[in-house]
Design a protein that fits this description.
By secondary structure, the chain is α/β, with parallel strands linked by helices. The protein has a single domain (2-283), classed as Alpha-Beta Barrel (TIM Barrel). The chain has 11 helices and 10 strands. The chain has helices at 30-43, 54-59, 61-69, 89-107, 127-134, 189-193, 196-209, 235-242, 245-258, 264-267, 271-283, and strands at residues 2-5, 49-52, 73-76, 113-114, 139-140, 161-163, 168-170, 175-178, 181-184, 217-218. The protein has a 4-stranded parallel β-sheet with strand order 3-2-1-10. Strands 4-5-7-6 form a 4-stranded mixed β-sheet, with helices on one face. Helix 4 packs parallel to helix 5. The model has no long low-confidence stretch (mean pLDDT 96).
Length: 284
């Protein structure tokens, strides 16, 4: 179970409508929404991984400390939600190192995982996985093995695989092949679009038929139907962003009760692997 910690106005689809220069003037809603999520997870005895923007963490430090103190994994979502496709290797290198260092100091914990904004690592920029390994990350969850108009690498493996010559592991978002096409059943807007029964069935197929763990993600703004509407967004963007927000929290509660969930580092990696991460951090 994973959460991409960003506020509603920071999503990639709104980048033409809400300039970064305006971010500081917009009241934040993310902390209140994360607190609701923390309570929801506590009610269902679920531990999760929170991929957190450095920009948000800098402004909501106590929220980050609560995430860590309640036993969840803190991970990096980059500093300002800039897609990797919009960064040079040098810019990306600076971003991931800055965010990792800041989150480690704030959370007093190791940052092992990274998720790119909008799953923006794909066939054209696999160099980013080398940069992540060089920066000391041990896993990434940045590839969506689907065909999409904004992102995706449909030929990528559907489950965990080694990258950067074995120096980092990539754990793609969960998909299910249907009629020769991978369908996203791992959360986000797809979870709000499909009937809950389909999502439950698809994840059970992954668990039972394929004997694999599923990876689910959502954003704090998805449980916030009262969020302000962004002016100037296209009809497609409005549909994708606002669809079924009022139903999301109820569906999440069902999902948390229907499956067993855990942190990424504990579900996808063995105790021996995690111990090796700690050892490599000491050596570094």
């Amino acid at each position: 179970m994973t959460v991409d910690v960003e506020d509603y106005f920071q999503v990639s689809a709104f980048e033409q409508n809400v300039p970064k220069a305006d971010w500081n003037a917009i009241p934040l809603r993310v902390e209140g929404n994360v607190d609701r999520i923390l309570q929801l997870f506590d009610d269902h005895k679920v531990k999760a991984t929170f991929f957190t923007l450095g920009w948000v963490a800098e402004r909501c430090p106590n929220m980050v400390r609560r995430i860590v103190s309640q036993g969840h994994e803190l991970a990096s979502h980059g500093w300002e939600h800039v897609r990797v496709t919009q960064q040079t290797p040098e810019e990306f290198r600076a971003d991931i190192r800055k965010t990792k260092g800041f989150l480690e100091d704030l959370g007093a914990c190791a940052i092992n995982g990274y998720r790119a904004a909008s799953y923006s690592i794909g066939a054209s920029n696999l160099w980013a996985l080398d940069e992540l390994a060089d920066a000391g990350y041990h896993y990434s969850s940045s590839i969506a093995p689907i065909k999409h108009d904004l992102y995706g690498m449909p030929d990528a493996p559907r489950f965990r695989f080694s990258a950067a010559k074995g120096r980092i592991q990539e754990v793609p978002i969960t998909t299910l092949p249907i009629a020769g096409k991978n369908i996203n059943c791992g959360g986000g807007g797809w979870f709000r679009l499909f009937p809950y029964g389909f999502s439950k069935w698809a994840l059970k197929q992954v668990n039972q038929a394929e004997q694999q763990s599923g990876l689910f993600y959502f954003h704090p703004w998805e449980i916030d139907p009262q969020q302000p509407r962004v002016d100037g967004a296209t009809a497609k963007t409005r549909f994708r962003h606002y669809l079924n927000l009022s139903r999301m929290e109820r569906r999440l509660e069902r999902l948390l009760g229907d499956f067993d969930w855990g942190r990424m580092d504990e579900v996808f990696f063995s105790e021996q692997e995690r111990s090796s991460w700690a050892l490599s951090a000491q050596v570094a």
